[in-house]
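The material for today's practical consists of a large collection of protein records. An example says more than a description, so a record of this kind follows:
***
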Amino acid sequence: MSSSPEAGNAAVGMLEQLNKASCAEDFFALLGVDYDPKHVNVVRLHILRRMGQYLVSEDFAGLSDAMVTERCKAVLEQAYADFVTSSPLDQRVFKVLKDAVAPPKPPVFVSLTTLK
């Protein structure tokens, strides 16, 4: 972690650690979030994708590393809770799942007379 007195640089510490995390369990460990390993094994990608969706709206500029850590922890807890209380099919964070419920597109009709 950065020991710089500048708050902007301090915020990079946790974000850099999260960026280097190699699995969902690393995120939970770094942020100190309790989880059920059996549940995470099933929905790990969904949880991390949702966490990313939540983090996009966060602005960490000027925050201390402790504040960044707290915000990231809260976001991971919310993302995890989303998939504890409902299924990936209900949440639909991936395009393939969104497309599965999209209204079917009308078939394209090409008249034989236009193919001359």
Summary: Residues 7-90 form one domain. The chain has one domain: 7-90.
